[in-house]
Amino acid sequence: MLKTPRLAVAALATATLALTACAPTDEGGDTASDTTSDATGSESPAADECTPDAMDTVTAGTLTIATDDPAYEPWFVDNDPTNGQGYESAVAYAIAEQLGYTQDQVTWVTVPFNKVVQPGPKDFDFDVNQVSITEARRKAVDFSSGYYDVVQTVVTNKGSAIDGVTSIADLADAKLGAQVGTTSYTAITEQIQPSEDPAVFDTNDQAVQALKNGQIDGIVVDLPTAYYMAAAQLDDGVIVGQLPLPEGEPEQFGAVLGKGSALTGCVSQAVDALREDGVLDQIGQEWLAQQGAPELS
Amino acid sequence: MTHQVDTAWQPSPVQRERDAWRRRRTVRSAVLAAVSTVLVLGAVAVVVVSSPGWQRVQETYFDWDKAVDSFPAVLEGLWLNIRVMAICAVLIVALSLAIAVMRTIRGPVAFPLRLVGTAYVDVFRGLPLLLVIFLLGFGGPALSLEGLPTSALFWGCTALVLSYSAYVAEVFRAGIESVHPSQRLAGRSLGLSYGQTLRHVVLPQAWRRVLPPLMNDLVSLQKDSGLIAVLGVIDAIRAAQIETAIDFNYTPYVVAGALFCCLTIPMARLTDRYARKKGYHGAGGHL
Prior knowledge:
The complex is a heterodimer.
Chain A lengths: L5 H16 L41 E5 L19 H12 L7 E5 L2 H4 L9 E2 L13 E9 L2 E6 L18 E4 L3 H10 L6 E3 L2 H9 L5 E5 H11 L3 E6 L9 E7 L5 H13 L2 H9 L10
Parallel strand pairs in A: 1-2, 1-3, 6-7, 6-8
Antiparallel strand pairs in A: 4-10, 5-8, 5-9
Chain B lengths: L12 H38 L3 H8 L2 H41 L6 H16 L2 H14 L9 H27 L2 H9 L4 H31 L11 H12 L3 H28 L9
Helix pairs in contact in B: 3-4, 3-6, 3-8, 3-9, 3-10, 4-6, 5-6, 6-8, 7-8, 8-10, 9-10
């Protein structure tokens, strides 16, 4: 008769116990429950539901806003979202004000984009990080109303192969780059459809570096970023032109909230109010002043 | 001649009893192993599936439709991983073997060689791979030297080869130094030169001993080949990332992971089998 291998049994039992002992935590208000809030924000909450006292924020009495690090110009200035400078920082503070928070009641947290859109409890109330609203993405997260209308633009260096082209057809043989996971990348693959595979980068800075090195002919980004690249990041950058809007809805950036978040309605309401009052336009004038770019046919 | 054995040899009753007992023991341990595995995996499965967020995780990470949709893109990315691995592996073996030989040459005259080899290994083992890829991948093309390619693939592979050769050179050196000195002396006393001894006596033995750890490095290289995606090329993981960004569903990453495992696991098993068959020293772990 063999002795029971006590050590093995003990080890197995311990491992199993340790696994089962992880007390499952219920995600407060973040489970994929049936409270599918209408993400278009059309389901307007009553005004008294959208006050600092009434809203179920991560930290009571303060609004926790997330963005990625580095935070780029012209959306943020000096990689510091707390200074209220840059379009998205200003919009975030305007939303907070609209909801009744003072500047001191706003906390910023750094959350990488990937973490923002993953399932699970969120440690922020909403995230502003130039995230385009798309129907497919609504399955995973909630969006507020759009606070910025996106135009995709092609940037290049003076004298490059695509400097001065006037139509999308002229970009057919170009090697274009974009940041990974952006609608800019989708614009390359679906709108421009060049013969060359697009180059994909983790950040726009790396795309700029590759453009400087001559490894790509051009970069596709949203218009404000394109202006910043052409003016500040590239030595002799030029804007080739903007891509025509694809059929249907204009593309917009929206604040990202956890799926089924109780705050989606309130944030959307605040954004809508800012749009109606012309505040968004003012902030745009201040931070995204631009003369427009030629439209590519 | 006529004395034919009409009955074939039969094991004795005692032997048969022994065989039966051994069979029973084998069956018993197989059953025990199965039960234990089922219990442990079952406990894990129960914990995972009964967790409150499981439904959400299932939708986000194990969505069959999304997996099917993203499969072609991820597979195309994996093809790049495979090509990069194949090309780099050959270059790495050549370079690392050269460095290992340089580091094991004896005598004061060869000191500069040993110095260069040691410095190389120290530097490239000390630098994180991602850093080497960044520095070469963005710095190399920035030199704008005529005749140097600017392709991300070229510089990415260069970084991989330089970094990995440092590790593999150490593996080879360990193998070379593990060959008993008497082998060298025997070779030399037969009139073989240093080079011939190395080539015919030392290296064949060293090679057998380091095959399992080399396999380790090859598997590791296969996964790290994806790191060159930071330079703009699209490998399996990058393709998965792009697919994920469409609707924030992370299933493509799981697809990529499964594909990588499909490549590496059979490769490791095959190497173990091959080494065992060849009777290489120390080869082959068993499950």
